[in-house]
Specification:
Blueprint (H helix, E strand, L loop, with lengths): L1 H20 L1 E6 L1 H17 L3 E6 L5 H8 L4 E6 H11 L3 E9 L3 E3 L14 E5 L2 H13 L4 E2 L10 E3 L5 E5 L13 E4 L1 H6 L4 H4 L2 E2 L7 E7 L6 H10 L2 H11 L4 E2 L2
Helix pairs in contact: 2-8
Protein name: MetQ/NlpA family ABC transporter substrate-binding protein
Pfam family, one: Lipoprotein_9
Membrane topology: Lipid-anchor
Length: about 260
């Protein structure tokens, strides 16, 4: 009887452990990442996995939580940001699959056309290294400034500024809140959507679709080939997800698979 009870308890423990292993916890910013992951939920369920989505409103916390093992994966960032984060924070995170591109845009509540931008205007840009550099590239593509060839650019790398624009470096998630105070703001599409801005209609300038800033699923080194991450990667790059992105975001978000 004791042995039977012992084996029953062992079997129960193994069942609980197996069930726990079937949960996949993914950190994401609300729009569009968490919305896209909601489409992934039923796809993973068919493969026996439960997807738990944890939403974050900043770019640092989900990476740290993935490094610490509190998240199995995260989904919110492009490769240049990930590489810079690993370098600065000493984390050990790697990309798995690319899912979509969010073209960065220039927005304004003061002007309707970028040609209306006045000399000496104030421009809000993200303050993290990769998104700041990306924002400056967008402004350069619009002919507002010229930049040197440094891989990561700041306003100090502007070589020509004919309109004598002034730059305010703002925490990335807070850039949309500056629109009442600045002439233009360069905003990441996920935060633009969260602020009820439509990139294809409201952006005065939109980043080229050839941009290298695809958003990836990211995990800690060593976990990229685990069964649950392989299942996640397959589900998030499924035809169902591609169709959802194309139909819901209508070009504001572009699938890259």
């Amino acid at each position: 009887m004791k042995n039977l009870l012992k084996y029953s308890l062992v079997a129960l423990s193994l069942t609980i452990a197996a069930n726990a292993a079937e949960k996949i916890v993914v950190g994401a910013t609300p729009v569009p990442h968490a919305e896209i992951l909601e489409v992934v939920k039923p796809i993973l369920a068919k493969d026996g996995f439960t997807l738990e989505i944890k939403e974050f409103n900043d770019y640092s916390t989900p990476n740290l939580a993935t490094e610490d093992g509190d998240l199995d994966a995260n989904y919110f960032q492009h490769l240049p940001y990930l590489e810079e984060f690993n370098k600065n924070k000493g984390t050990h995170l790697v990309k798995t699959v690319g899912v979509h591109l969010e073209p960065m845009g220039v927005y304004s509540k003061k002007i309707k056309d970028i040609k209306e931008l006045k000399d000496g205007s104030t421009v809000a840009i993200p303050n993290d290294p990769t998104n700041e550099s990306r924002a400056l590239d967008v402004l350069a593509s619009a002919g507002l400034i010229k930049l040197n060839d440094n891989p990561l650019k700041t306003p100090l790398d502007i070589t020509e500024n004919p309109k004598k624009l002034k730059f305010e470096e703002i925490e990335t998630a807070q850039v949309p809140r500056t629109l009442d105070d600045v002439a233009i703001a360069v905003i990441n599409t996920n935060y633009a959507l969260n602020a009820n801005l439509n990139p294809t209609k409201d952006a005065l300038v939109l980043e080229s679709k050839d941009s290298p800033y695809t958003n990836y699923v990211v995990v800690k080194v060593g976990n990229e080939n685990s069964p649950k991450i392989k299942a996640l990667d397959k589900a998030v790059t499924s035809p169902e997800v591609k169709k959802f992105i194309e139909e819901k975001y209508k070009g504001a978000i572009i699938p890259t698979f």
